[in-house]
Write a structure and sequence with these properties.
By secondary structure, the chain is of the alpha/beta class. It has 23 helices and 28 strands. The protein is globular and about 70 Å long. The structure holds iron/sulfur cluster (SF4). The site of iron/sulfur cluster (SF4) has 13 residues, from helix 1 and helix 7. The site of iron/sulfur cluster has 13 residues, from helix 1 and helix 7.
């Protein structure tokens, strides 16, 4: 038996584990002692080997023939076919007619190459990935408030926080090993847990206060808490004066959000808002954790800015066990953003107007780079067949992950060329003109960056199936065919280039990433990495208070669609289910989708537990079984988004946050109809 140390391919916690290999097959997993996961794994981590040798893995390149069916072809044929088509489209419509989608499931090295491919080889900033669908508002909001769009503190610090405020994160299901830290802080250290979530989630049982705000009312709730803090003089005057700016403009807006007024918007009783505000503000060290309950709204950036306001108001940032901590959903969504797989940022969050930094990249890559932001994921798909004629996509599955899937399908069908590079025939690959077989985490070397900015190694333990190729090799081979030879011998060489061009990764050469890895910023070879950000100074200098007014969600309930639909994840599955739904262990726990309905709503509708119903929105409809539960408040239903056959995203709305362009997955209007009268 051989043991290979690597990093879990699922959520952003980044647990380290050993793959057990015997005779060329991964036969099991054991957790690494210590590290971010302290020798533990959640059920997904324990089962993370079960999809690796699945017989449905893609093993040969496929090109769609004249009869519409896929034909197996050689790599030479597939790559030449793609290169010729891309050249033709570029010549006819220009570089911006091509879009590239990188992947939060792939390594930093692969994402870096993919954005370089878009910008240097194709000549477009139309490069994005599904961070746009989960934490684009975090990147925009925290960059505006603090100058850095990442988790400010470390996971281990949670244990010493006096108060932990969790808003919009079902941590137990989505980041189980972070939830474990929260529970230990509460049980062993007496930390107070403040929870804001419309649903009665597992953490509710451990919370001192649980505020069940109406979906989409977070700005009002946070303004209400800050109103109390100011009214009762609980703010940190010294921090506000010395470390921040724009406080007075912020104060003027917050003063209007009395708890009584906020109750009308959020339904949270005023006394609960007061108690929560006092508990958070009086704590010596208070940490905020949030996730997609905050970010996936048309007011996602406003929600993030409000969390930043709250932390600055009480001086709870820039010191240990405090901070504003976005919990990243996928294994490498942080890293994919860091290395520039975003339409509006070059690597290291270089803005499109930062001429000096872009010049450095132009010199390194020997090209002139585009200086305007490209199209984001949702925009690219929306423009398919119009401005966009080709999409080259690595490891993404918009046919399950994006809002309003019926529209996504119709749009992708209009493309002249859709190339999907993946390990399985995903729902999106089924629509492609060319499908390229690539490799999974156990078959490659590289790095993932977890939610606390920790860059960790992944290591090759087994060979890929059939003719599947490394993602980085496919990109370089395609680039070379398109006239820009990319010559790298290994992921290590790609990381060496990243360390030269991405200052926060400056000291992160492979030989320094053995063991527990390093947290960025790590600018030089002798730098130990950074446990928490903004110690004496924010990345932007002074922290910026932003006055934020409450705005309602894009779609309101009405007589025709009287229920609020909210979507999310469950512990047993990951993202679009491509990997976890091939795991017997995980399928045994949950193999089909469900809609959570409050028993009172069910009574009014005349439906029972386990009954098949039709859920409808203005975008589409799905048939799905009910699960009656008081977890959801009356008037709200919840559907996990992992299941392609009755996908929640058939129903969701593609309304976007105007700044971050993130869709409003968390609120839309829906109805339930009985299938059998
Ligand atoms: Fe850890 Fe997340 Fe993997 Fe579970 S899914 S083992 S919490 S990294």
């Amino acid at each position: 038996m051989q043991y290979t140390l690597t990093t879990c391919p699922y959520c952003g916690v980044g647990c380290q584990l050993y793959l057990k290999e015997r005779e060329g097959k991964i036969v099991g997993i054991i957790p690494r002692e210590g590290g971010v996961n302290e020798g533990k794994l959640c059920i997904k981590g324990w089962a993370a080997h079960e999809f690796i040798h699945d017989p449905q893995r893609l093993t040969k390149p496929l090109v769609r023939g004249k009869d519409g069916k896929f034909e197996e072809v050689s790599w030479e044929y597939a790559l030449t076919y793609i290169a010729d088509k891309l050249k033709e489209i570029k010549a006819k419509y220009g570089s911006d007619a091509i879009g590239v989608l990188a992947s939060a499931k792939c390594t930093n090295e692969e994402n870096y190459l993919m954005q370089k491919f878009a910008r240097v080889v194709i000549g477009t900033n139309n490069v994005d990935h599904c961070a746009r669908l989960c934490h684009a508002s975090t990147v925009a909001g925290l960059a505006a408030a603090f100058g850095s769009g990442a988790m400010s503190n470390s996971i281990a610090e949670l244990q010493d926080a006096d108060a932990i405020f969790v808003i919009g994160s079902n941590t137990t299901e989505q980041h189980p090993l972070i939830s474990r830290r929260i529970l230990r802080a509460v049980r062993e250290n007496g930390s107070k847990l403040i929870l804001a979530d419309p649903r009665e989630i597992d953490l509710s049982g451990f919370a001192t206060i649980h505020m069940r705000q109406k979906s989409g009312s977070d700005v009002a709730l946070l303004n209400g808490m800050m109103n109390v803090i100011l009214a009762e003089g609980l703010q940190d005057e010294e921090f506000i004066k010395g470390r921040t700016e724009n406080f007075e403009a912020f104060r003027k807006v917050v003063e209007r959000y009395t708890p009584e007024y906020v109750k009308e918007i959020t339904s949270v009783p005023p006394e609960k808002i007061r108690e929560a505000a006092r508990l958070y503000a009086k704590a010596d060290k208070a940490a905020i954790l949030f996730s997609m309950g905050i970010t996936q709204h048309t007011t996602g950036v406003d929600n993030v800015l409000s969390n930043a306001n709250l932390a600055m108001l009480t001086g709870n940032v820039g010191k240990e066990s405090t901070g504003v901590n976005p919990l990243r959903g996928q294994n490498n969504v942080q890293g994919a953003c860091d290395v520039g797989a975003l339409a509006n940022f070059y690597p290291s969050y270089v803005r499109m107007d930062n001429e000096a930094a872009i010049k450095k990249l132009e010199e390194a890559w020997s090209v002139t780079l585009p200086k305007v932001a490209g199209l984001t994921v949702v925009e690219m798909i929306g423009e398919s067949g119009k401005k966009v004629h080709a999409i080259y996509l690595m490891g993404e599955n918009p046919m399950v992950s994006d809002p309003d899937i019926n529209h996504v399908r119709e749009s992708l069908k209009k493309l002249d060329l859709l190339v999907v590079q993946d390990i399985f025939m995903s729902e999106t690959a089924e629509l492609a003109h060319v499908v390229l077989p690539s490799v999974c985490y156990a078959e490659k070397d590289g790095t993932f960056t977890n939610t606390e900015r920790r860059v960790q190694r992944i290591r090759k333990a087994v060979s890929p199936p059939g003719e599947a190729r490394q993602d980085w090799e496919i990109i370089t081979q395609l680039a070379t065919r398109l006239g820009y030879p990319m010559k790298y011998a290994s992921p290590k060489e790609i990381m060496d280039e990243i360390t030269r061009l991405v200052p926060i990764y400056g000291g992160m050469q492979f030989d320094r990433l053995e063991g527990e890895g390093l947290q960025w910023p790590c600018p030089s070879k002798d730098h130990p990495g950074t446990k928490y950000l903004h110690k004496d100074k924010f990345s932007r200098g002074l922290g910026l208070f932003t006055p934020v007014e409450y705005l309602p969600p894009a779609e309101q309930v009405d007589k025709q669609y009287p229920l609020i639909l909210t979507t999310g994840r469950v512990i047993f599955h990951f993202h679009t289910g491509t990997m976890t739904r091939r795991s017997p262990t995980l399928n045994k726990q949950l193999s089909e989708n469900y809609v959570e309905v409050n028993p009172e709503d069910a009574r009014m509708l005349g439906i029972v537990n386990g009954e098949s119903v039709r859920v409808k929105s203005r975008r589409g409809e799905i048939n799905i079984k009910t699960r009656l539960s008081a977890i959801v408040p009356e008037g709200t239903i919840f559907i996990p988004f992992h299941f392609a056959e009755n996908a929640a995203n058939v129903l969701t709305i593609s309304a976007l946050d105007p700044k971050a362009k993130i869709p409003e997955f968390k609120v839309c209007a829906a109805r339930i109809d009985k299938l059998v009268p």
